[in-house]
Amino acid sequence: MTANAIDIQIEGKHKLRGTVVTKTSKNGAMGLLAASLLNRGKTTLKQVPHIEEVFRIIEVFESIGVSVKWSGDNLEIIPPTTFLMDSLDKVAAEKTRSVIMLIGPLIHSLKKFSLPQAGGCKLGSRTVKPHLFALEKLGVSITTTDSTYEIETKTLIPNEIILYESGDTVTENVIIAAAGIPGTTTIKYASANYMGQEVCFFLQKLGIKIEGIGTTTITVHGKKDIDQDVVYELSEDPIESMFFITTAVVTNSNIIIERCPIDFLEIELLKLEKMGFNFKILKKYTARNGHTNLVDIETFPSELTALEEKIESRPYPGLNIDNLPFFAAIATQASGTTFIHDWVYEKRAIHLQKLDKLGVETNLADPHRIYITGRSTLTAAEIICPPALRPAAIILIVMLGAEGKSILRNIYSINRGYEDIIKRLNNLGAKIEIL
Asked: Beta partners for 369?
């Protein structure tokens, strides 16, 4: 599927109502798609999101000989006998940072190969060194050029690995790599976040013994031959749940958000509660993967006050890195000044300055720190989406609360991570037109 630029017009200030169901996650899908290449049998992933990031990885897969077949919301994946790396779709690969996670599975089929430098969100100078340092411990040599990663393996060995950074993708990459190496690999300072847990649950279905899921020390008992037909159903996306919670805050609306992964939203909801946000947990149940805890959340119109403390992200179980930007939109409706510290990404806070055009009072202290003073009287504007998923989504949300008709140009960044988002918002009572 091609990536087309789409412009939209948003008529703001409409109260939303009704129910929306949280869809499955981009980040979970990326890790599971990478892990599926370990399996010589047929992998069926159920409830895969129809989003641009998934489409790009599928284009990469197909270009190297992987059989990928959609059946509704389900994906069937069968790796080839030999991966055709010379045919790799570089254009698609360069549009997603997730391509780096292909190192983990491909080292078990190829002694030497090349991957394009990762793309995706333009968020600053986050290094790929944690991947390099960790995979070296397993016997993988990675050389970076201006445009590629050159990967070479000799003898793969299990090992104890201390991660240079407690990152999500590096944790997934190493878990996937270790799963195919006979013996015990221990990963310390691992991310315990939802996407890494998804990879572990999937690998368990393939017969890989994994200990410490949901903690920062993960032990993987790898095996050489992974060859079986497996079916796994993705869990829901806490970041999408937070998108709709934030939309309810900015539009001061009463809506119900179903299938929210509560374990990955608790600190966000606590901070919102302390700001004065009124919500109710309607019921609790388990996701179809048999592991993830879900709830339904009802939101109510609320009067918010800014927190005195700074709001910053932390590796799980802290406030999720991808949920942090939503507090910029929330801060526009809170009396007082909110201090947001985005210590991970240099450019995300800079992208949030675009909110000024919508009547938001921002003060950028440096590339990592921004102050937002509310409550803002939001007014319509025309903005080009920044090349970053979460800041682009925040601009869309704030436009929903702005008086008048706003234009948001080139929403490809949003479509990378949110499925059918315009239709679903309109079903809640938003007024959004595709231009």
From this structure: 341, 366
Q: Write out the two tokens for 304.
A: 């918010």
- Verify that 213 and 265 share a domain, yes or no: no
CATH code assigned at 378: 3.65.10.10
User: Collapsing DSSP states into helix, strand and coil, what is residue 64?
Assistant: coil
- Are 291 and 260 in contact by the 8 Å Cβ rule? The answer is no
List pLDDT tens digits, range 127-147: 688 999 999 999 999 988 888
DSSP per-residue codes, 273-328: HHHT-EEEEEEEEE-TTSS-EEEEEEEE---EE--SS-EE--STTSS-TTTTTHHH
Of 233, 258, 283, the residue that ends a domain is 233
Cα distance between residue 295 and residue 318, in whole Å:
19
The pair of structure tokens assigned to 418 is 């949110």
Q: In the prediction, which pLDDT does 127 show?
A: 66
Check whether residue 211 and residue 338 sit in a common domain.
no
Q: In what order do the strands lie in the sheet with 74-78?
A: 67-71, 74-78, 43-46, 230-233
Mean pLDDT (the chain, rounded): 94
Helix (H, G, I), strand (E, B) or coil at 12: coil
Q: In this structure, are residues 263 and 292 in contact, taking their beta carbons and an 8 Å threshold?
A: yes
Residues 155 and 269 in one domain: no
Here the tokens at position 255 are: 């809506």
Residue 372: predicted pLDDT: 97
pLDDT (0 to 100) of residue 4 = 62
* Confidence at residue 257, expressed as pLDDT on a 0 to 100 scale: 98
Task: Give a yes or no: residue 3 inside a domain.
Answer: no
Residue 398: which domain range? 8-23+236-434
The answer on 399 and 339 residing in a single domain is yes
| Confidence band, pLDDT 50/70/90 cuts, at residue 1 | very low
Show which of 233, 267, 283 is a domain's final residue.
233
Q: Are residues 368 and 382 in the same domain?
A: yes
The answer to whether 315 and 192 are in contact (CB under 8 A) is yes
What percent of the chain has a predicted confidence (pLDDT) above 70?
97
The partner residues of 21 in beta bridges, in order of sequence, read 258
Three-state SS string over 216-228 comes to CEEEEEECCCCCC
70-98 pLDDT per residue, tens? 999 999 999 999 999 999 999 999 888 78
CA dist 321 and 388 (Å) reads 14
Q: How confident is the model at residue 65 (pLDDT cuts 50, 70, 90)?
A: very high
DSSP state of 383: E
Are 146 and 16 members of one domain? Answer: no
Closest CA to 224 of 39, 41, 82: 39
Asked if residue 301 and residue 203 are part of one domain, the reply reads: no
- Do 242 and 207 share a structural domain? no
